[in-house]
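Chain and conformation:
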Amino acid sequence: MPSPIDLHSHSTVSDGTLTPSELVEHAAARGVRVLALTDHDDVAGLEEAASTAARHGITLVNGVEISVTWHGRTVHVVGLKISPTHAPLAQGLAAIRQGRQLRAEGMADSLANAGIHGSLQGARVYATRGIIGRMHFARFLVEQGHAKDAAAVFKKYLVKGKPGYQEHCWAALEDAVSWITGSGGIAVLAHPGRYDLGRVNMLTLLAEFRELGGTGVEVVTSSHTPEQSLHFARLSHQFGLLASSGSDYHGPGQTYIDMGRLPDLPANCTPVWQSWPEAMALQ
């Protein structure tokens, strides 16, 4: 039976296509009862989402997804149950957002050099709440006929060695984890199956993440195959990490699995919500 818990989602505050209120309404219609809004490097949608969640009887978990550079690779860390007003967290996220703007300008320059002009302005049409990310550029490129969909964009553009790629250094892993835990939150390594790290680097990342105070790892998420979910379930047990589950929902047609359709965690997992009364009441 699909899980009523979804701990990874995005709104128009970052690169989702639904406003925070619309996102919560969609979650409610899909039977989600505990929802985390985890916009990229921004918490501006949490108040709006909480108001709508209260009307629908949904428990909203304050969240964020922080962009991290680890050994020259980009990884993401989700913060759950954060205090969004915690000063180091707020200041750190503000700095990342400023860096996002500089990266967007570099991406637009790279695309212009490849003959694709107006991409910054085009991406801004989709970035309705301020932050500009790769997905906004992807939507522009699809609209302009340069690719059939977002997946095709990321094969031809915006990735290393392709037009639109811009090297960028995000937050340090140590800082991201400390901002989250310092705010009273739980740090979770997001969608590890998406990182092309190889076995040794993945084990090193998980060990370092745990040593820095990381608590969990996403085991079930829309970009993981069933085999990957089982693999990271085993690794969560090996490293003493709790298991999280989230759709990484970005809007209709933007995600492999819709909200409210996530499978249960594998049987050997200890859920990140194991001590949350609002979540355990649903089990």
